[in-house]
Amino acid sequence: MEKLLKFSIGPLSVPDDKSLFFIAGPCLIESREMAMEVAAELHACCSAMAVPCIFKGSFRKANRSSGSSFTGIGDVAALEILAEVRERFSMPVLTDVHERQDIALAARYVDVLQIPAFLCRQTDLLVAAGESGLAVNIKKGQFMAPEDMALAADKVAQTGNSRIMLTERGTSFGYHNLVVDFRGIARMARAGYPVVYDATHSLQLPSAANGVSGGEREFMLPMARAAVAAGVQAIFCEVHPDPDNASSDAATQIALRDFPGLFLQLQKLHACLQSL
What are phi and psi of 172, to 5 degrees? Predict the structure, then answer.
């Protein structure tokens, strides 16, 4: 196992020596009520087992298959909801940024900036995220070799900010399909940063459902188990009270009622591996 850089995000230690940590929440902040419902369940579940959790939610979805797709409730309104989650549940919060000008705004409300997969080579965006001083989660592009993610991380680290995570989210395999090569987790870990597995977006079928992305949610648990066995430090998953009617990523978000079962199985597996 590679020696990984350790850092803190609010009260969380990353990576955690005792357990997986989770990055979980809805794909998109659709309303205050929905965000608070999800946050309350995640907080209760993770607190019961003293497992670290970062609440995630996009304040705006800039990358949509169709120009008619819903993009958000308004930037400041969504960011204020994220800040309220942090305050109310004492959980760090994460959101995506797509342009340099997003960073100054989002940094006022969140603890972690996430670089979307399609933007993981955008030097100006990575540098600006690093200069914010916040932790930065870089998603591996569907077109990127895992070892090349070290170059993306270096762009952030050169700003003096080494609070970096790298996330596996699948690789393009022909049209409308993704695969996960679990060798990539070990290869990304060689860069020295914690590696996260995105159990949601790895199951997407991009733009495969009449102008929106489809997905194969039924494979989430076996794929997440494989990622834990391969040595990831964290699991990223999108959680929604009613996934089929979500405003984005309806085919891959996990139902809120199913999160505790997924959470418990992955924690048990991680504990078994720690005993080897």
Answer: -55, 135
The answer as to CATH 3.20.20.70 being correct for domain 7-274 is yes
- DSSP annotation of 140: P
Cα–Cα dist 176/1, whole Å: 34
No. of H helices and E strands in the chain? 8, 15
Q: What is the pLDDT of residues 54-66, one digit of tens each?
A: 999 999 987 756 6
Around 193, how many Cα atoms within 13 Å sit in the side-chain half-sphere?
Answer: 26
Find residue 178's DSSP bridge partners: 172
Q: Are 247 and 78 in contact (CB under 8 A)?
A: no
Partners of 139 in beta bridges? 167
User: pTM above 0.70?
Assistant: yes
Number of residues in the chain: 276
- The angle that helices 75-89 and 32-48 make with each other, rounded to 10 degrees, is 30
Given this model, what pLDDT does residue 65 score?
Answer: 60
CA–CA distance, 74 with 52 (Å, rounded to integer): 29
What are residue 12's DSSP bridge partners? Answer: 9
